[in-house]
Structures are given as structure tokens and as C-alpha cells.
Write a structure and sequence with these properties.
The chain contains eleven helices and eight strands. By secondary structure, the chain is of the alpha/beta class. α1 runs parallel beside α7. The protein is globular and about 45 Å long. It starts with 28 loop residues before the first helix and ends with a strand.
Length: 275
């Protein structure tokens, strides 16, 4: 395990991100920037290797996606995938809906959602890594998908209008954010009244050791930033969501460290109140 060269990663309050309040409890601008830089570097590199990773990645996507879903994807979309679930497979996206994917990567979940919503619907992919956006747009051209658009942006400040989306999906991305409270506030902002999210993510059943939380390698693998599940669910509730449902909960496997037994792959659905 490599110590984080980007500085200590400190939990923050969504309303006090970076500025003001108790300095000892905050993360600094420099620390936030360093987390972003580490993640962008790793996922930019993943985009570059998508083609050569395709056969290896297909083994992972075989576990998460159905054969029918995989048949409509490019090898590069599968090769760029770093997800931990299949949110589209259980989201029940409907014809004509607007879907937004947080951390869309090479576009794998966007393309699957595009099939679900059909030509009268639309899908928006948000990613902060320019190389991933280039790959996703190339994949869209190869697939001749015309109802998907990819935008550069951050999940803590989503470039989307208020009350404009029926369904938000995300696949092992919110764990990468040190501002999860803000992410959920952004999701509820952009959802239409009665809209919902279906999110797959990594959480834990107990706090991670400090050295794991401060490891750059563990952060970019969606582990170092994983929240305790009870805290994660509390953030969803505090953002204003109702009718929260755990759709899938399974223990992660692999690794010899004792703390890895606390890791959980979680798929969650929640609704924005209709009024």
C-alpha cells in the first residue's frame, strides 16, 4: 500500500467545503485538488488502456452485466469500465425519460440506458476526465448512438438544470468524492419531483484504518473514500430523499488485509419527494 503523496484526506462538511468553519475539521483547497488530480490521472490512464484491457475487463463485466447488455457495447466501453454494479439493469428506465450518469467513464452505463429510454429519451454522461470523455464520444460514434451527450463536469457541481432529470445513475463513483453530502444535494437538485436515483457504490460496515483513508492507491480504487454504510444512508436522508431502498448488498472479496472484510458493494434507490 502506498502512502498518499497528495496530503491527508480529511472528512468535510458539505456546507463548509474548503472555506470557513473549524480549520481542523476541513479539507483544504489543495487537498481537494490533489484528490481530483490523483483520480483524473488514474482514470485518464484507464481510458488510454481501454482497448488492451477489453478482454480482462470483459471477465469483470461478465459478472455484472447480462449477455444481452454486453452485446450492445464496444470492447473499449467494457475495457474502460471500473464499476461495482449494474444500476441500469435494475433502474427500470422508461421510454422517453431523461437519465444522467455521474462518472460516466467510457459510456458503458449510458449506452445501456440509451437503449432503455429509446429515441424519445435522452442520456447525459458527466465525467471530469477529458480522456474518458473523448473515449465515450468515440464509442458513441461507433455504436451510432444519437440520444447520448457527454459533458465535462464534477459530481459535486453537476452541469445540469434544476428539476430536469427523471433518473440519476452512478456506478462506483461517489466513493471517489470527499464531498458526498454535496453530491447528494446536487442529485436532488437536478431530479424532477418524483424522480429517483439508482446508485452502485462501495461502502463499509465500520470505519477504515487511517492509513487506508490516506492512501492514494486506495482512493483511486474506490476504497479509501468509502463511507460507513450507516453514514452514507444518513447523507441520503439528510439531502431530502424519501423511500430509500437497498436493492443489493454484498460483501466485497479479495485481499488479505483484515479491513477488506468490511467492504460492501451497495446498490441503492431513493426518490425525490413528488411535492
Amino acid at each position: 500500500m502506498t502512502n498518499n503523496p497528495f496530503g491527508t484526506l480529511t472528512p468535510i462538511d458539505a456546507d463548509a467545503a474548503c472555506c470557513g468553519g473549524d480549520e481542523s475539521a476541513e479539507i483544504t483547497h489543495a487537498q481537494l485538488d490533489s484528490i481530483t488530480a490523483a483520480v483524473q490521472h488514474e482514470y485518464g490512464s484507464l481510458a488510454e488502456r481501454a482497448g488492451e484491457r477489453a478482454s480482462q475487463a470483459n471477465k469483470a463485466t461478465d459478472r455484472l452485466y447480462t449477455e444481452e447488455q454486453r452485446s450492445v457495447l464496444t470492447d473499449e466501453a467494457a475495457g474502460a469500465s471500473a464499476g461495482c454494479g449494474n444500476p441500469v439493469g435494475i433502474a427500470d428506465a422508461k421510454s422517453g425519460e431523461t437519465v444522467l450518469d455521474l462518472g460516466s467513464g467510457g459510456g458503458i452505463d449510458c449506452f445501456l440506458a440509451a437503449k432503455e429510454v429509446g429515441p424519445t429519451g435522452s442520456v447525459i454522461g458527466i465525467d471530469m476526465t477529458p480522456r474518458m470523455l473523448e473515449l465515450a464520444r468515440t464509442n458513441a460514434e461507433k455504436l451510432e448512438t444519437t440520444n447520448v451527450v457527454f459533458k465535462l463536469g464534477h459530481i459535486e457541481q453537476i452541469p445540469q438544470e434544476d428539476n430536469s432529470v427523471d433518473l440519476v445513475i452512478s456506478n462506483c463513483v461517489i466513493a471517489l468524492s470527499e464531498q458526498k453530502e454535496r453530491v447528494f444535494l446536487e442529485i436532488i437538485r437536478i431530479l424532477k419531483p418524483g424522480g429517483r436515483f439508482v446508485i452502485s457504490d462501495i461502502v463499509t460496515d465500520k470505519p477504515l484504518p487511517d492509513d487506508v483513508r490516506k492512501s492514494a492507491a486506495e482512493w483511486v480504487s474506490c476504497v479509501g473514500g468509502a463511507a460507513v454504510m450507516s453514514d452514507y444512508l444518513a447523507m441520503v436522508k439528510e439531502a431530502g430523499f424519501a423511500k430509500t431502498e437497498i436493492l443489493e448488498e454484498r460483501k466485497s472479496t479479495g485481499g488479505n488485509e483484515e479491513w477488506r472484510s468490511s467492504m460492501i458493494n451497495l446498490t441503492l434507490r431513493a426518490f425525490k419527494p413528488a411535492v
